Amino acid sequence: MILETVRQICLAWPGVTEDVKWDGDLVLSVCGKMFAVVMLDPPHRTSFKVDDEEWAELVERDGVIPAPYLARAKWIALESADVFDTSELRQRLERSYALVRAKLTKTQQAALDAAAARRTPGRKGRRPPRRPTGG
Q1: What's the domain range around 31?
Q2: Which pTM was predicted?
Q3: What is the pLDDT of residue 119?
Q4: CB neighbour list of residue 103: distance below 8 Å, 6 or more residues apart
């Protein structure tokens, strides 16, 4: 189900929150700025921001349309769950997150970086375990 797939992908990133708005849309945001929307009712139309350069090309693909109300901001909408495979969906959602994150203030971006560093095992500053020497 695309709704759960999108949630699983996006909620793993720093600063992502979800909220139900407009009586039926799950909105995924980073620091209060939305980067993806999934209709809660089938067919679970999914919308997200894309690069300006890719927008026109993507809306020419079968099953991809300009996102209602958000097309001027270069958002697309997937008319069904099978437009992109899971790998491409993950990549495009991650790009949407990055595009919106880049518009945040430097302070907000630094806070997200710090949160990501706390969650990442083996982060810089930690000494790796020593290997035993043979004897």
Answers
A1: 2-117
A2: 0.85
A3: 77
A4: 33
